[in-house]
Amino acid sequence: MDSEVFDEFELAGAPDGFQRLWNPHRAAYQSRGQNQVTGEGDCPFCQGPERTDEESLIVHRGKTCFVLLNLYPYNPGHLLVCPYRHVPDLTDLTAEESREFTSLAQSSMRVLTAAARPMGFNLGINQGQAGGAGIAPHLHQHVVPRWQGDANFMPIIAQTKNLSATLGQTRELIATTWTPDVAEGSD
User: 185: how many CB neighbours lie within 10 A of its CB?
Assistant: First the structure.
């Protein structure tokens, strides 16, 4: 490129109407999961159910799917709903798995509401590497409890996420709150 192009853009980028918030520390987290999992043998979602609930941070086991805490939570109580089968896409689920997958997301919201009284939720499925899935080969849905004002700049400027309890304490609270009455909404 010649120097005229650099002068025009002032090396820092062309001014436009967008404000950007750069999170370079997220790149390492996203790329590690995507590149490390090549099959069922090295998939943490396949290996998790083979260990104890405490070791794998599992809060509930269903017939075709299970729920566990995210090892790298956005907020306290950040849950993942996973099928036991190692499938990458929502379209790969059987009808039975699909029903339980959706039902466990709903139950997760009820249980989190009873345990921590969030003011809202983010629910999401990132499909494939390009879609932002940290572990693309194994389908999982995020259930993230949210509170007014829970987002701040600590993760960006200090690479620090302020969590009020350990993952073990959070798992225990959610697992003990996960009773049929609470999970099914019959309270």
Answer: 13
